[in-house]
């Protein structure tokens, strides 16, 4: 499938001249989903219009350059009206040829995925902690992801959220939990088939607690042991000893000591 998403280029939205351009070409492994953490409709910055979308892109670039970045940090912006705008200069050209450009949207924090800034980052207008994206914006996100996966030869399973790379809430809990659905719709467009398990990937972090079993529990037990909290046998079964170790770790880290290894505890352990 060719790159079919319609993208408004930097020259079309009147971007300011970037510093240090042209940016280095990179080989991308992921597509990384963000939210802009702005207000949602009816108070969305772009108001769903094309002129609003262009103005929003200019404002974001201006904000990023004011914090001494060379240009917009992301590669694409997807607005509430379903308009897709190029972010960092050269992004569209690069992805159409199977590459990306070095960007600044997903720096790596400890224990997280690496090389986010070498892969295309999509900013989605809004705050998606609980708010659900409207249909137009969702459709353009699917279209853009399908185009990127196709032209850059990226597996739809490698559509990730910003929080997979950095210690952040981005792209919001609701949107992050939609990633399996996004992967599925992109895979469908590309004629690829994956199992439910594969589509889920690491994106739905379930709480690990008394009674949990499996590979994630083994990872948790190993990390607890590394940190000096003995979980008993490293057997993938979350029993009393593992619970006691989680509680002791939580107390030492100043977290609520409930014995449940959710996102906060696992982030603190560096395994979220
Ligand atoms: Zn982000």
UniProtKB/TrEMBL annotation:
InterPro entries: Amidase/PGRP_sf, Amidase_domain, Peptidoglycan-bd-like, PGBD-like_sf, PGBDSf, PGRP, PGRP_domain_met/bac. Pfam families: Amidase_2 (PF01510), PG_binding_1 (PF01471). Residues 5-166 form the Peptidoglycan recognition protein family domain. GO terms for molecular function: N-acetylmuramoyl-L-alanine amidase activity; zinc ion binding. One of its GO terms (biological process) is peptidoglycan catabolic process. SMART domains: PGRP. CDD domains: PGRP (cd06583). Belongs to the N-acetylmuramoyl-L-alanine amidase 2 family. This is Putative peptidoglycan-binding domain-containing protein.
């Amino acid at each position: 499938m060719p790159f079919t998403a319609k993208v408004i280029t930097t020259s079309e939205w009147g971007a300011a001249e970037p510093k240090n351009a042209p940016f280095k070409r990179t080989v991308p492994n992921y597509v990384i989903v963000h939210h802009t953490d702005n207000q949602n409709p009816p108070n969305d910055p772009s108001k769903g219009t094309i002129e609003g979308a262009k103005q929003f892109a200019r404002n974001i670039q201006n904000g990023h350059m004011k914090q001494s970045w060379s240009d917009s940090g992301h590669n694409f912006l997807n607005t509430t009206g379903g308009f897709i705008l190029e972010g960092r200069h050269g992004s569209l050209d690069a992805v159409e040829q199977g590459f990306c450009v070095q960007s600044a949207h997903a720096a790596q924090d400890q224990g997280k995925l690496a090389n986010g800034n070498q892969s295309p980052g999509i900013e989605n207008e809004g705050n998606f902690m609980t708010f659900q994206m409207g249909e137009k914006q969702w459709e353009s996100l699917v279209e853009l992801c399908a185009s990127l996966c196709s032209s850059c030869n990226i597996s739809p399973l490698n559509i990730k959220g910003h929080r997979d790379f950095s210690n952040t809430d981005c792209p919001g809990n609701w949107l992050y939990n939609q990633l399996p659905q996004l992967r599925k719709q992109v895979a469908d467009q590309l004629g690829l088939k994956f199992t439910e398990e594969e589509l889920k990937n690491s994106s739905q972090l379930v709480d690990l607690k008394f009674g949990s079993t499996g590979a994630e529990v083994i990872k948790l037990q190993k990390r607890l042991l590394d940190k000096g909290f003995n979980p008993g046998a490293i057997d993938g079964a979350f029993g009393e000893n593992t619970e006691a170790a989680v509680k002791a770790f939580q107390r030492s880290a100043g977290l609520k000591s409930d014995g449940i290894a959710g996102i906060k505890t696992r982030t603190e352990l560096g395994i979220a």
